[in-house]
Amino acid sequence: MNNNLLKNIIRFIWLVLLQILVFNNIEVFSFITPFIYILFIIMLPFDTPKWVILVSGFMMGMCVDIFSNTGGIHTASTVLMAYISPWAQKVVSSKQDPEAGTQPGIKTMGFRWFFFYTLILTTVHHICLFYLEIFSLTDFFGTLKHALYNVAFTMVFIIISQYLFIGRKTE
Amino acid sequence: MRPLIQFLIKNYNFFLFLVLEFFAFLLIFQNNYYQQSAFFNASNAISGGIYSYYSGFTDYLSLKKVNKTLADENSNLLNLQKSSFIKTNNKTFIVNDTLYQQQYTYLSAKVISNTTNRINNYLTLNKGSKQGIKKNMGVISPQGIVGIVKDVSDNFCTVTSLLHSKSKISAKIKKNDYVGTIIWNGDDYRIVTLKDVPTHVKIYIGDTIISSGYSMMFPEGISIGTIYLYGTNKGKDFYEIKVKLFNDFNNISYVYIVNNLMKDELNELEKKSQNE
User: Which of A20, A27, A69 minimises the CB distance to B117?
Assistant: First the structure.
């Protein structure tokens, strides 16, 4: 348990630094920035209490907000995402029931499950984020298009990260 | 009372969710309208410290370009010096320095964090209130206007970039002095839009756009960019002019913060005439 806690705290710091120092500087087609930091919420173990997920989502969003001068838009969208994450775990059906303490990942739950689970959460987070950032509904579809392009890129980076870092360690 | 408490306990996750979202939205509104969130932005000591440490590494990558702009700027300044002019008028004349009173002072600062890919972009600089920086000072680079100081801490300040959905900067066409407003629509960090120029004005692609000097933040004549495309909307009397910026916002390392020494005087005067 303690080991798990420590691992998650290290991942938290590591993801915040990665987001603000590396990914915030990435821009594809001048408007796409992958938001890799939401991987922290995605990878919280299955039996995490709901309030822990919410509070850690709040803290994660706040850290990113402070560093990128965005007020509270990352906080608001990450909290929303954290709130629906237990629901998303149930909606995406899986063959095996997860054991307590395991964390969602391609290695533990299979590619298909992880892909759809991440897709739901990333889409909710990004759509919320983009509409809050522009703070108006004029050019509704333009904003939606931006958000969905961004979802694709974030997904690519999250799935690559699964194969690069986490895959080997859990064996 | 008991049922209420039971209800709260049973649904505590939902209420926690509401409370956290409430705080998040509080931060959003504070950031958008009051600009008082002095702590929750990149000008505080922790995030400013991390950014300046980080830029200590990345600075080396742009040294060559920074050196070139500095050398260019130095040669421009040398050209303006009195010693590089020859007197062509042989009649007597008086140099009277009291004719001029300094209105603007400049302070150089280093950019320690910068974005161009969001809809609302900000920069963080390594100068703060200890060095005399105040809110709403203008920020320029050797190539043109950069933005306006938003928040100040002891040693750092954040700057609302020209590339911000709410930024509005008064500008004019250099050759005929017609004034318009520069805005950014969030698409391309190299292109901004100049609005409010009436359609009877003759403009050409390649015309230079400079600052108008109507705002108190920037002196007149700071370069901004050149006209790149223009058109009119149906039934409107104003052009929509696309301006290509001189500044490469992706590659700004050193900037100048403009201090208008007569700002208070101007402010007071304008307040007076508004009250009447």
Answer: A27
Percentage of residues in chain B having pLDDT higher than 90: 14
Share of chain A above pLDDT 90, in %: 38
* pLDDT tens profile B195-206: 888 888 888 899
Q: How far is B135 from chain A (nearest CA, A)?
A: 16
Count of C-beta atoms within a 10 Å radius of residue B174:
15
* Per-residue pLDDT reduced to its tens digit, A10-68: 999 999 999 988 888 887 776 788 999 999 999 888 888 888 999 999 999 999 988 88
Nearest CA to B109 out of B258, B1, B234 is that of: B258
Mean pLDDT calculated for residue range B119-146 = 88
* Mutation for testing the A interface, residue in B12, B31, B53, B118 having most A CBs under 10 Å: B118
How many domains would you assign to chain A?
Answer: 1
Instruction: With a cut of 80, say whether residue A93 has pLDDT above it.
Output: no
Instruction: Decide if B7 touches A, using CB distance below 8 A.
Output: no
Q: Are strands B120-125 and B104-114 parallel, antiparallel or unpaired?
A: antiparallel
Answer yes or no: do B120 and A54 touch at CB < 8 A.
no
Closest alpha carbon within chain B to A34: B117
For A31, the token pair is 């408007």
| Strands B138-141 vs B254-260: parallel, antiparallel or unpaired | antiparallel
* 3-class SS of residue A31: coil
Length of chain A equals: 171
ipTM higher than 0.85? no
Structure tokens given for B22: 């409430």
Give the structural domain span for A131: 2-169
